[in-house]
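From: lab user (bench 3)
To: helpdesk
Subject: output format question, protein + iron/sulfur cluster

Hello, I'm new to running complex predictions and I'm not sure whether the block I got back is the full result or only part of it. Here's what I submitted:
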Amino acid sequence: TYVVTENCIKCKYMDCVEVCPVDCFYEGENMLVIHPDECIDCGVCEPECPAEAIKPDTEPGLDSWLQLNSKYASSWPNITQKKEPPADAKEFDGVPGKLEAHFS
Ligand code: SF4
Ligand code: F3S
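Helpdesk reply: Thanks, we reran it on our side. This is the complete output you should expect:
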């Protein structure tokens, strides 16, 4: 599966949802997650994310992000169409500590 990681938080560009062939993105207030059981590992979303927040779970160190994606994909609503990204998305690109400060 692919997973959405920290840099999505407060960037939330949503380009990813437009390309996913199985519509497996779920929407929180400040970030999206991928449902690990629905993702077919096609990889097309990874290069679409302007924040480079989407990674394959074969990359080391992503266990906690995989768990977070799995947990919230079960409760957040499905999202299949891009909306208007946050006006201050660019300001949050690459900012450290977003999980602690802004996860929702
Ligand atoms: Fe969707 Fe493919 Fe990305 Fe998985 S890898 S979330 S199936 S676009
Ligand atoms: Fe987040 Fe990137 Fe999608 S910032 S909403 S994973 S395009």
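A quick orientation on your result: Strands lie at 2-4, 25-27, 32-34, 54-56. Let us know if anything else is unclear.
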